[in-house]
Design a protein that fits this description.
The complex is a heterodimer of chains A (305) and B (448).
Chain A lengths: L11 H21 L3 E2 L1 H4 L1 E6 L7 H10 L9 E4 L5 E5 L4 H15 L6 E6 L3 H27 L2 H25 L2 E2 L1 H29 L7 H33 L2 H34 L2 H15 L1
Helix pairs in contact in A: 1-6, 1-9, 3-4, 5-6, 5-7, 6-7, 6-9, 7-8, 7-9, 8-9
Chain B lengths: L2 H23 L2 H4 L4 H4 L1 E10 L7 H17 L6 E5 L3 E7 L4 H9 L4 E5 L6 H12 L19 E4 L3 E8 L5 E7 L1 H14 L6 E5 L2 E4 L12 E4 L4 H12 L5 E11 L1 H30 L1 H26 L7 H30 L4 H33 L4 H37 L14
Antiparallel strand pairs in B: 1-3, 1-11, 2-3, 4-5, 4-8, 6-7, 7-10, 8-9
Helix pairs in contact in B: 1-10, 1-13, 9-10, 9-11, 10-11, 10-13, 11-12, 11-13, 12-13
Classes of the chains: A alpha+beta (305), B alpha+beta (448).
């Protein structure tokens, strides 16, 4: 099989510029458009109606009105590809929301079991948000700790830069397309942090291995070779992870799509950032160490001959 | 033990594990518990908040739990559960419950314990209902009991007067329940028991509109210290004590999260999730075979082994009541398909690379898989850390996602060390060396 070698280190300027551009766009999107948080974080109700393929959005809005749904005018109504309806309201009383959903079914003449209602009461959202933030913080600290002990702190710090890059861009993407952020999104994001690191660790593993007996080549050259050596693996594992998740996005219901969307975006970014951000940054930083500086000069002298 | 014997032994161990797993897991729909979001039903998170300024004591929270269990049992739903979540929250799950509205109303109201003079009830329908309540063991799966009509009876006192209730034994060593009351209670109780004792009149104990017990008054009780005896078992006595204790809790029960899932939606979601998982698995298998040829076929068996063990563990945990498959759980499972393929890919790539570097198939297989497993385990540990953080700290259904992810990662480590690695090493010496092209490789031995 022919091996294709890509000069990641040589093109690091473009890679960094590309990433920087994405980060800037993401920050802008987050500032300008902001994130749309799900009811779990701020309280409210989501009613899901199935078997409504022949109901139009207008009819649904009328039905909400007729059923006396509080704030029916402000309700967010969304129809899925399967014809189900997802209706978000500000109702924070579970009792009332359940009653309203039954009333809507009554108006539309649908059987009882076709409604699902989730209600989050006032104040609970803060709990959910805090719990999610704690999970995020603990997970990041634990990961940095593990990588620092197992490898070295320069690896863990560059890995974290790549992680921050991934998270920012995924969130920016959510802001840009106006996708709702739910606890599922947060869980998926956390997992992607793990995944992105997974990829990064694989590259670092190889760099460390190749770096042990480094002669006549600069650290950057060696790092570039290392990236290329694990590239087939990185692309393939990203593909095999993406395939099932894309299937989930294509065939899954709304809860599953929620996960799948964040996973697809995050997996792609995570794979890119490992070879495009984490490894080049690490190599650059590492090369500033005196012994690698010496190697670099030697390698340059060697190439000039 | 020589390496070959050890490898064969590893495969035998895996084969036994797979057989055990399949025995546990089949048929899937009966052996793996389905969560509420799939089966349909009502899932509620309730928080107990103190009404006064004083914080809730551990004892008060235990009593809230007792009340909730009693109420949930009153719904007559099988497999209903009440679980403590954190300091003062409870997760109540009512699979298949029809009237979510009524269930929510009952769960959210403060406990109401009432004492009624049975003889004072005149409405015949109510009397009939009371005897039905008393005949039915409401702690076990029961019919959906109608509650007593509040206007049809007049309680002479409520649960607030009870200061303690506990299980004791009477003089014949049978289970009994002894209660103590405050001064107000003792006064009323003395008056009522004095009136009822000559006729052995019955006092009806009603919790949340359901008649729980109707002991006869044997003698006037003026101190409030009362012993209820009867032909009940210790379990029944314990329940009655719990009911009596549950009156007058200084708490407000608030509904923080309520998820009511229609059966149709749940089943649709399950079907969609399974379709996605199977198509995903199929496509991954196809990709592996196209890209890695013969090695890809090895990965099919790795994936199948992985799937069998995964389902076996889920079924085993379901049996212990420690697992119920939810939609986030399915998302976690689908993600682990990629994880399982990943550990195979790492080993294949490393194996092929070492062959390219000029090692014999045999030594390339050994050192390649060893290196790859080192990498895989590091990476798995990192993912495990994120999953564990979600499982331990996050609130709500996402924990199901973290749980399946953690199980998947653990099984992945077992499969890649016991199965994938040994298969590659065993086959490298024989099959791969004879027909490297079938495995997407060139040469081999001539490099040695």
């Amino acid at each position: 099989m022919r091996r294709i070698t890509i000069d990641f280190m040589g093109n690091k300027k473009y890679l960094f510029a590309f990433s920087a551009a994405l980060v800037v766009i993401s920050i802008a999107a987050l500032l300008v458009r902001g994130l749309m948080f799900g009811i779990e974080f701020q309280g409210g109700s989501v009613m899901t109606f199935t078997g409504t393929a022949d109901v139009s959005v207008e009819r649904m809005r009328e039905a909400l009105d007729e059923a006396g749904v509080a704030g029916a005018g402000a309700a967010v109504i969304q129809q899925t590809d399967e014809g189900d309806f997802i209706v978000r309201t500000s109702e924070q009383d579970a009792d009332a929301a359940s009653l309203q959903a039954q009333a809507v079914l009554g108006v539309l003449g649908l059987p009882d079991q076709d409604a699902s209602v989730t209600t989050i009461g006032p104040g609970w959202g803060a709990n959910v948000t805090n719990a999610a933030l704690i999970a995020l913080a603990v997970s990041i600290i634990a990961i940095i700790g593990y990588v620092s002990i197992r490898f070295e702190y320069k690896m863990s710090l560059t890995a974290v830069v790549a992680l921050a890059h991934d998270v920012l861009i995924v969130l920016g993407f959510y802001a840009l397309v106006g996708h709702e952020v739910t606890p599922n999104t947060v869980a998926a994001l956390l997992t992607i942090l793990g995944y992105s690191l997974y990829d990064t660790v694989v590259v670092f593993h190889r760099i460390r291995e190749n770096g042990q007996n480094l002669v006549r080549r600069s650290f950057q050259q060696m790092a570039n070779d290392s990236i290329n050596q694990v590239l087939a693996r990185s692309i393939n594992t990203t593909l095999t992870s993406l395939i099932p998740v894309v299937c989930l996005l294509a065939f899954g219901g709304s809860t599953l799509k929620d996960f799948a969307f964040a996973l697809v975006v995050g997996l792609t970014l995570g794979a890119y950032s490992s070879v495009g951000v984490a490894a080049p940054l690490y190599a650059l930083w590492k090369e500033r160490e005196p012994r690698f500086q010496a190697l670099k000069r030697k390698a340059e002298a060697h190439a000039a001959k | 033990m020589d390496p070959k014997t050890r490898n064969v032994l590893a495969l035998v161990v895996i084969a036994v594990l797979v057989a055990l797993a399949l025995w546990q897991a089949l048929p899937l729909d009966q052996k793996i518990t389905q969560g509420l979001d799939i089966k349909g039903g009502l899932s509620v998170i309730l928080t107990a908040e103190p009404l006064g300024a004083a914080p809730l004591t551990e004892e008060a929270i235990d009593r809230v739990e007792t009340i909730l269990v009693e109420r949930v049992n009153g719904f007559g739903v099988s497999e209903a559960t009440v679980q403590r979540q954190g300091a003062n929250a409870f997760l109540v799950q009512l699979p298949g419950v029809r009237d979510a509205k009524q269930a929510l109303a009952i769960l959210g109201e403060p406990g109401k314990l009432e004492f009624v003079d049975l003889g004072s009830i005149t409405d015949t329908a109510t009397i009939a209902l009371v005897s039905r309540h008393l005949e039915t063991d409401t702690s076990v799966e029961a019919t959906d009991l109608a509650r007593l009509d509040e206007s049809a009876y007049e309680p002479f006192m409520t649960g607030e007067v009870i200061t303690a209730a506990q299980v004791t034994t009477d003089q014949y060593n049978n289970a009994a329940v002894s209660i103590t009351m405050n001064a107000t209670g003792s006064d009323i109780w003395g008056e009522v028991t004095t009136r009822l004792a000559p006729t052995r009149g019955q006092v009806l104990i009603v919790l949340d509109g359901i008649a729980k017990s109707a002991p006869s008054v044997q003698e006037p009780i003026l101190t409030g210290d009362t012993q209820i005896t009867g032909t009940f078992t210790f379990d029944e006595a314990k329940r009655l004590a719990a009911v009596l204790q549950s009156g007058a809790l200084p708490v407000e029960i608030r509904i923080d999260e309520s998820r009511e899932v229609g059966a149709t939606l749940g089943q649709d979601s399950l079907a969609q999730g399974l379709t996605a998982a199977l198509i995903g698995l199929g496509l991954v298998a196809l990709f592996m075979a196209v890209y890695y040829r013969g090695l890809g076929v090895i990965s099919w068996f790795s994936l199948l082994t992985f799937a069998a063990l995964f389902l076996g563990v889920l079924a085993f945990m379901s049996r212990l009541g420690a697992f119920a498959l939810s939609l986030p759980g399915i998302a976690g499972m689908v993600l682990t398909i990629g994880l399982a393929a990943d550990s195979s890919i790492l080993q294949f790539e490393r194996f092929k690379e070492e062959v390219r570097l000029g090692k014999t198939f045999r030594s390339a297989a050994k050192s390649g898989t060893r290196h790859a497993i080192g990498t895989s385990i590091d990476a798995d540990v990192v993912t495990l850390v994120s999953a564990a953080a979600i499982y331990l700290f996050a609130i709500g259904p996402v924990r199901g996602f973290a749980l399946t992810l953690m199980i998947g990662i653990t099984i992945d480590i077992i499969v890649m060390t016991l199965f994938t690695r040994t298969t590659i090493v065993l086959l490298a010496e024989s099959v791969v060396a004879k027909a490297p092209a079938l495995f997407g490789m060139k040469g081999g031995d001539e490099h040695a």
